[in-house]
Amino acid sequence: MRHASFFVVLTLAAFSLNAQEVTAGIYGTVQDSTSSLIPNAAITLHNVDTGRDYQASSDQSGNFALTLIPIGRYEVFAVASGLKKGTVTGVTLAVNVKWRIDFLLEFGTITESVMVSADLVAVNTANGSTSAVLTNHTIINLPSTARAILPFALLMPGAVSTAPTSPTANYTSVNGVRPTHNAWVLDGGYDIDTGGNWGVLLAPNMEIVEEVRAIRGNYSAEFGTGGGSQFNVITKNGTNQIHGSAYEFLRNSNMNARSYFQPTLPVLKYNDYGFTVGGPIVIPHVYNGRNKTFFFGNLDLTPLRTQTQFLQKLPEAPYRTGDFSALGKTIIDPANANAPFPGNVIPQSRMDANGVLYAKQYPSLNFRDTNGNNWTTVQPQKQLTYQYTARIDHNFNDKHRLTARWTANHNDNNYFVSTESGFDFQHREDIALVNHEVLALTSAQYSPARARHFARELRLDQSEYAVE
């Protein structure tokens, strides 16, 4: 068996101080029942899953804002002297969303509270971008052959794709814009093939994705790379509660139907199984990370056994020895004034030795159909893909937090061909390794002198891709 191999390594690294935003925010005003603006009202945004609070105060015009807030479920409180405490529950912040929440506080004591449901008061009026968000609940409950994120781009209005089931191909055109103008962002770091942007380097499995924000127009200047759509993918993080999942998905040719043009049903054995786990980092008698330090991890394995069926039209057996008597067309001799060969048969003495050897490499014919195909074979494929993710979120205090995530994907493909003579050169093995890392440090501070909430973020991301 002839064998050939090659090894190519490509490392892509991107370091930036102003990465694409992967957080959310709120803003609004505080008024009393007479519509008078309330300055210096204490605003607290409380994450119900991690226990962390984000604080600000209203300025002299009664306005407040909190930015660079991690996505999640929140409650918002407003407290001012001589007024009842205002509480807004059920606030779900999605990525790239700025929600307006206005408080109308009634006269009374702080110990009294007025509670309002968020769906009655929260409206995104901060910008004019057109977008849609997909949550993990939506993603994992919709059918997906690849169990990947890219195909879900087609749920956005105006989206079409020439590879709708591919987990890595960036072939989705939105509103008529070329697919290569799209940008896929994973936790704020670009996840694109910078050589041509026809695909993503890492295809995150849907079990680690918390939500996807698809922005198709009128987005802010923080998004670049092209004039197409921006797909902002956010991974899961740990909370104060231990949570996890175990799963397995199966596809098998025993449950499939044969295509009309297939002589036989190709074998397919596809499994996707793994687990996720997340929660606070707690070391008994050493460290209690509740409300402070959280972890999330995932291991996903996808073994695949399948066959690709080939149909070909090869030279008939008599043609390979020079006998074209059944061809129905005249074979002429260019060395004899284009005179026809007797009986439409080329003498062995006139045949090139290299051509004779080449003709012997063709396999025997084994099939006939109405399209003229006379040979079929299957190419068995064995593939093992495993992906693992580790993420740590740490709150140093109420002003500074750190996020670190590492995702690695290993894909081992083995291709084979039937034992037909002359085609063994198609035996090969492909190995692809992908790493994607993100490190983000966020600092937030409230300035009483300027009555403003300031937030800064340093984000480093790196992608590595190797093929053997």
Describe the structure.
The chain has four domains: 24-120, Carboxypeptidase-like, regulatory domain (Immunoglobulin-like), CATH 2.60.40.1120; 129-235, TonB-dependent receptor, plug domain (Ferric Hydroxamate Uptake Protein, Chain A, domain 1); 243-311 and 378-463; 315-362, no CATH class. It is elongated. The protein starts with 7 loop residues before the first strand and ends with a strand. It has helices at 136-140, 353-360, and strands spanning 8-16, 24-32, 42-47, 53-57, 63-69, 72-79, 85-93, 98-100, 103-105, 113-117, 130-135, 159-161, 172-174, 183-186, 189-190, 209-217, 230-235, 243-252, 268-280, 282-283, 287-288, 293-312, 332-333, 339-340, 375-395, 400-415, 428-447, 452-467. The longest helix has 8 residues, at 353-360. Strand 27 (428-447) and strand 28 (452-467) form a beta hairpin. The chain is built from two helices and 28 strands.
What number of structural domains do the residues give?
4
Low-confidence stretches: 1-18
Placed side by side, the strands forming the largest sheet appear as: 1-28-27-26-25-22-19-18
Mean pLDDT: 83
Strand content: over 45%
- Which class do the helix and strand fractions yield? mainly beta
In helices, the fraction of residues equals under 10%
Q: SSE string, helix = H, strand = E? A: EEEEEEEEEEEHEEEEEEEEEEEEEHEEEE
Radius of gyration: 31 Å
Taking the alpha carbons of the first and last residues, their distance comes to: 19 Å
Q: Number of helical segments?
A: 2
**Total number of strands:** 28
Biggest sheet features: 8 strands, antiparallel
Quick one: overall form? elongated
